[in-house]
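Researcher: Go.
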Amino acid sequence: MELKEYFKIAKKNVSILIYAVIIAVVAVYIWSIKQSETYSTSLLLNIGRIETQSTSDYRYDQFYRIQADDKFSETVSEWLKMPGVAQEILSKAGSNSGSKSLRQLAKTFSADKMSPQIIEVRFSPASPDEAGKISSAIASVISDRTKALNADARDPNWFKVDPSNLITAKNTQDLRINLFIAALVGLILGIFFAFVKHYISED
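Model: Structure:
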Protein backbone atom coordinates (compact mmCIF):
# COMPACT_ATOMS: atom_id res chain seq x y z
CA MET A 1 0.00 0.00 0.00
CA GLU A 2 1.37 3.41 -1.00
CA LEU A 3 1.65 6.41 1.32
CA LYS A 4 -1.16 8.30 -0.45
CA GLU A 5 -3.50 5.39 0.25
CA TYR A 6 -2.72 5.69 3.96
CA PHE A 7 -3.59 9.39 3.82
CA LYS A 8 -6.77 8.53 1.95
CA ILE A 9 -7.85 6.10 4.65
CA ALA A 10 -7.04 8.64 7.39
CA LYS A 11 -8.95 11.38 5.54
CA LYS A 12 -11.94 9.10 5.05
CA ASN A 13 -12.03 8.41 8.79
CA VAL A 14 -11.06 11.89 9.98
CA SER A 15 -13.95 11.92 12.47
CA ILE A 16 -12.37 8.99 14.33
CA LEU A 17 -9.08 10.90 14.57
CA ILE A 18 -10.81 14.02 15.87
CA TYR A 19 -12.85 12.14 18.47
CA ALA A 20 -9.78 10.21 19.66
CA VAL A 21 -7.77 13.42 20.09
CA ILE A 22 -10.64 15.20 21.89
CA ILE A 23 -11.23 12.30 24.28
CA ALA A 24 -7.52 11.99 25.09
CA VAL A 25 -7.11 15.75 25.66
CA VAL A 26 -10.21 16.03 27.86
CA ALA A 27 -9.21 12.99 29.93
CA VAL A 28 -5.68 14.30 30.50
CA TYR A 29 -6.99 17.79 31.27
CA ILE A 30 -9.28 16.43 33.99
CA TRP A 31 -6.45 14.27 35.36
CA SER A 32 -4.04 17.24 35.40
CA ILE A 33 -6.52 19.46 37.25
CA LYS A 34 -7.10 16.78 39.90
CA GLN A 35 -3.36 16.18 40.30
CA SER A 36 -2.80 19.91 40.81
CA GLU A 37 -5.11 19.76 43.85
CA THR A 38 -2.97 17.17 45.67
CA TYR A 39 0.05 17.57 47.95
CA SER A 40 3.29 15.71 48.67
CA THR A 41 5.02 15.71 52.03
CA SER A 42 8.56 14.82 53.07
CA LEU A 43 9.57 14.15 56.68
CA LEU A 44 12.98 13.18 58.04
CA LEU A 45 13.34 10.76 60.94
CA ASN A 46 16.67 11.05 62.74
CA ILE A 47 17.94 8.00 64.59
CA GLY A 48 19.70 8.97 67.83
CA ARG A 49 20.64 7.57 71.22
CA ILE A 50 19.01 8.11 74.59
CA GLU A 51 22.40 8.10 76.31
CA THR A 52 25.96 6.96 75.78
CA GLN A 53 28.12 4.60 77.78
CA SER A 54 30.14 6.22 80.56
CA THR A 55 33.36 4.26 80.74
CA SER A 56 37.08 4.85 80.41
CA ASP A 57 37.47 1.55 78.59
CA TYR A 58 37.10 0.99 74.85
CA ARG A 59 33.48 1.89 74.17
CA TYR A 60 31.22 -0.58 72.39
CA ASP A 61 28.95 2.33 71.49
CA GLN A 62 31.44 4.13 69.28
CA PHE A 63 32.57 1.04 67.42
CA TYR A 64 29.15 -0.46 66.67
CA ARG A 65 26.99 2.65 66.66
CA ILE A 66 26.78 3.12 62.88
CA GLN A 67 26.09 -0.57 62.29
CA ALA A 68 23.40 -0.64 64.97
CA ASP A 69 21.80 2.59 63.75
CA ASP A 70 21.76 1.21 60.22
CA LYS A 71 19.91 -1.93 61.33
CA PHE A 72 17.47 0.05 63.42
CA SER A 73 16.80 2.37 60.45
CA GLU A 74 15.83 -0.72 58.45
CA THR A 75 13.46 -1.71 61.25
CA VAL A 76 11.77 1.70 61.23
CA SER A 77 11.49 1.59 57.42
CA GLU A 78 9.81 -1.82 57.63
CA TRP A 79 7.41 -0.57 60.30
CA LEU A 80 6.18 2.14 57.92
CA LYS A 81 5.46 -0.47 55.23
CA MET A 82 3.13 -2.45 57.50
CA PRO A 83 -0.62 -1.92 56.92
CA GLY A 84 -1.28 -2.06 60.66
CA VAL A 85 1.23 0.69 61.40
CA ALA A 86 -0.13 2.86 58.58
CA GLN A 87 -3.67 2.42 59.91
CA GLU A 88 -2.54 3.29 63.43
CA ILE A 89 -0.85 6.47 62.17
CA LEU A 90 -3.85 7.57 60.09
CA SER A 91 -6.25 6.86 62.95
CA LYS A 92 -4.14 8.88 65.37
CA ALA A 93 -4.04 11.73 62.84
CA GLY A 94 -7.82 11.62 62.42
CA SER A 95 -7.63 10.61 58.75
CA ASN A 96 -10.07 8.16 57.22
CA SER A 97 -8.31 4.80 56.77
CA GLY A 98 -11.33 2.52 56.98
CA SER A 99 -11.98 2.58 53.23
CA LYS A 100 -8.41 1.55 52.35
CA SER A 101 -7.41 -2.00 51.48
CA LEU A 102 -4.34 -3.71 52.93
CA ARG A 103 -2.44 -3.00 49.71
CA GLN A 104 -3.35 0.70 49.85
CA LEU A 105 -2.39 0.96 53.52
CA ALA A 106 0.97 -0.70 52.81
CA LYS A 107 1.66 1.93 50.13
CA THR A 108 0.51 4.94 52.17
CA PHE A 109 4.04 5.78 53.30
CA SER A 110 7.29 5.55 51.37
CA ALA A 111 10.34 5.22 53.65
CA ASP A 112 13.82 5.58 52.14
CA LYS A 113 16.97 5.20 54.21
CA MET A 114 19.13 8.19 53.26
CA SER A 115 21.96 7.21 55.62
CA PRO A 116 22.39 4.85 58.60
CA GLN A 117 20.82 7.52 60.85
CA ILE A 118 18.36 9.33 58.55
CA ILE A 119 15.10 8.06 57.02
CA GLU A 120 12.99 10.10 54.61
CA VAL A 121 9.26 9.43 54.82
CA ARG A 122 7.03 10.56 51.95
CA PHE A 123 3.24 10.55 51.71
CA SER A 124 0.40 12.37 49.98
CA PRO A 125 -1.93 14.29 52.34
CA ALA A 126 -5.16 16.00 51.34
CA SER A 127 -3.97 19.36 52.70
CA PRO A 128 -1.02 20.98 54.48
CA ASP A 129 -2.99 20.84 57.73
CA GLU A 130 -3.44 17.09 57.37
CA ALA A 131 0.27 16.76 56.57
CA GLY A 132 1.13 18.25 59.95
CA LYS A 133 -1.27 15.93 61.78
CA ILE A 134 0.02 12.82 60.00
CA SER A 135 3.65 13.83 60.59
CA SER A 136 2.97 14.23 64.31
CA ALA A 137 1.22 10.84 64.31
CA ILE A 138 4.19 9.22 62.57
CA ALA A 139 6.56 10.60 65.22
CA SER A 140 4.25 9.46 68.01
CA VAL A 141 3.69 5.92 66.70
CA ILE A 142 7.36 5.30 65.86
CA SER A 143 8.44 6.72 69.23
CA ASP A 144 5.97 4.42 71.06
CA ARG A 145 7.30 1.39 69.22
CA THR A 146 10.87 2.46 69.93
CA LYS A 147 10.08 2.86 73.64
CA ALA A 148 8.62 -0.65 73.63
CA LEU A 149 11.94 -1.96 72.28
CA ASN A 150 13.85 0.09 74.85
CA ALA A 151 11.82 -1.45 77.67
CA ASP A 152 13.17 -4.88 76.77
CA ALA A 153 16.75 -3.74 76.18
CA ARG A 154 19.51 -5.00 78.47
CA ASP A 155 21.62 -1.95 77.65
CA PRO A 156 20.10 1.51 78.38
CA ASN A 157 22.21 2.88 75.51
CA TRP A 158 19.30 2.48 73.14
CA PHE A 159 17.54 4.37 70.35
CA LYS A 160 15.29 7.39 69.97
CA VAL A 161 13.67 8.84 66.84
CA ASP A 162 13.37 12.58 66.26
CA PRO A 163 11.32 14.02 63.35
CA SER A 164 12.57 17.07 61.47
CA ASN A 165 12.45 18.98 58.16
CA LEU A 166 8.74 18.66 57.46
CA ILE A 167 8.08 19.96 53.94
CA THR A 168 4.71 19.98 52.15
CA ALA A 169 4.42 21.11 48.53
CA LYS A 170 1.49 21.31 46.15
CA ASN A 171 1.83 19.07 43.12
CA THR A 172 2.06 21.05 39.90
CA GLN A 173 1.44 19.94 36.35
CA ASP A 174 2.70 21.48 33.09
CA LEU A 175 -0.70 21.56 31.41
CA ARG A 176 0.62 22.49 27.97
CA ILE A 177 3.03 19.55 27.80
CA ASN A 178 0.41 17.17 29.17
CA LEU A 179 -2.17 18.27 26.59
CA PHE A 180 0.35 18.09 23.75
CA ILE A 181 1.30 14.52 24.68
CA ALA A 182 -2.39 13.65 25.06
CA ALA A 183 -3.16 15.04 21.58
CA LEU A 184 -0.27 13.09 20.09
CA VAL A 185 -1.32 9.84 21.76
CA GLY A 186 -4.94 10.47 20.75
CA LEU A 187 -3.87 11.01 17.14
CA ILE A 188 -1.89 7.76 17.08
CA LEU A 189 -4.81 5.84 18.58
CA GLY A 190 -7.19 7.51 16.13
CA ILE A 191 -5.06 6.41 13.18
CA PHE A 192 -4.94 2.88 14.58
CA PHE A 193 -8.73 2.70 14.97
CA ALA A 194 -9.22 4.23 11.52
CA PHE A 195 -7.16 1.48 9.90
CA VAL A 196 -8.90 -1.20 11.99
CA LYS A 197 -12.25 0.12 10.79
CA HIS A 198 -11.00 0.21 7.20
CA TYR A 199 -9.81 -3.40 7.19
CA ILE A 200 -12.94 -4.64 8.98
CA SER A 201 -15.20 -2.88 6.48
CA GLU A 202 -13.24 -4.35 3.55
CA ASP A 203 -13.59 -7.86 4.95
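Model: Residues 79 and 145 are 9 Å apart (CA to CA).
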